[in-house]
Design a protein that fits this description.
Cofactor: FAD
Helix content: 25-40%
Number of helices: 10
Strand content: 25-35%
Subcellular location: Cytoplasm
Largest sheet: 5 strands, antiparallel
Function: Cell wall formation.
CATH class of the largest domain: Alpha Beta
Radius of gyration: 21 Å
Distance between the termini: 34 Å
GO molecular function: FAD binding; UDP-N-acetylmuramate dehydrogenase activity
Catalytic activity: UDP-N-acetyl-alpha-D-muramate + NADP(+) = UDP-N-acetyl-3-O-(1-carboxyvinyl)-alpha-D-glucosamine + NADPH + H(+)
């Protein structure tokens, strides 16, 4: 075994998940290079235990202790792999902090991910979730990623089509779940950026600041301001950001709901209507509710928070109660955006 890293036992995971849950991992290892990962795949502990691959920990809910191996992917690095007069292909290690990468690109004047400012988590987790916000998704700037096969240790390069991106979804949450570890992501960025202000809240905020021809820095700064005004900082109060996906329903079901709830907001999408999950949850009276140290944020109903000592099972119980109430009132099933890990999930 490489002396540069070590396997730890019975490790408290609270520093490694933004909900701040004190679940324990039977085994834990932090890997800082592809070579370390490929070497460790041959190890007995890797081969004989169930595994959870952990990035920034911003999209995971540990319901209880994890009786297996948690692999913290902490591979750093940024490299321009191709550049022309108008495009840059930027390769980043899976362990890079996503927001810091966005700030790096904004400072360079490379456009495409400025709308994704202040999203917590790591670069490696971004394509798994196909992160998105304020009118932009990762798929819009994605070029390729490299991932290591967990059985063979071989590196496979996935193209955009091979990743099968969907709404907060990818092949890595479906048929390739648990079969690969993402080690790098390459983004296709613009040197002469096309500014995306289609998202209403963003365009209105820019307009209120008197900015008619925004730069990517203007967009980034404004997104950061909006997010900070609506979403709690995980460093101050434990949370995973948006807990549920915004549900997509058929036009016929939406029309029926519109008759019962004339004020129901929606966004038209190819397959029907996308309903803000936050609105549904708020209409069911959950915003600001607290049960012990588990609660729903007072400013954003889509965010479930840990006020300090909540357990994963308490957070999950609250989430299930929210799901049941939305289902009962609207007939809509809310699907968690977070990965729920544990025996009772």
């Amino acid at each position: 075994m490489n002396s540069d890293f070590q396997i730890r036992e019975h490790v408290d995971l609270s520093p490694y998940n933004t909900m701040g849950l004190a679940a324990k991992a039977r085994y834990f290892i932090s890997l800082k290079s592809v070579d370390q990962l490929k070497e460790f795949i041959a190890d007995k502990i890797w081969q004989e235990n169930q595994r959870w691959i952990l990035g920034g920990g911003s999209n995971v809910l540990f319901i209880d202790d994890f009786d297996g191996l948690v692999v913290h992917v902490d591979i750093p690095g940024k490299e321009v792999v191709q550049e022309s007069d108008d495009l840059v292909l930027l390769k980043a290690g899976a362990g890079e902090n996503w927001h810091e990468l966005v700030m790096f690109c904004v400072d360079k004047g490379w456009g495409g991910i400025e709308n994704l400012s202040l999203i917590p988590g790591s670069v490696g987790a971004a394509p798994i979730q196909n992160i998105g916000a304020y009118g932009t998704e990762l798929v819009d700037v994605f070029h390729v990623l490299e991932a290591v096969n967990v059985e063979t240790g071989e590196i496979h390069t996935f193209t955009k089509n091979e990743c099968k991106f969907g709404y907060r979804d990818s092949i890595f949450k479906q048929e390739a779940r648990g079969k690969y570890v993402v080690v790098s992501v390459t983004l296709r960025l613009q040197k002469d950026p096309q500014i995306n202000t289609v998202y209403k809240a963003l365009s209105e905020a820019l307009e209120s600041k008197g900015i008619s021809t925004p730069t990517i820095k203007d967009v980034s700064d404004t997104v950061i301001e909006i997010r900070r005004s609506k979403l709690p900082d995980p460093a101050e109060i434990g949370n995973t950001g948006s807990f549920f996906k915004n549900p997509v329903i058929s036009e016929s079901i939406f029309d029926e709901l519109k008759e019962r709830f004339p004020d129901i907001p929606h966004y038209s999408v190819e397959s029907g209507a996308k309903i803000p999950a936050a609105w549904l949850i708020d209409q069911c009276g959950w915003k600001g509710k607290r049960f012990g140290d588990a609660g729903v944020h007072k400013m954003q109903a889509l965010v479930i928070v840990n006020y300090g000592e909540a357990t994963g099972s308490e957070i999950w119980s609250l989430a299930q109660r929210i799901q049941a109430s939305v289902e009962d009132k609207f007939g809509i099933s809310l699907v968690p955006e977070v990965n729920v890990v544990g025996k009772t999930a």
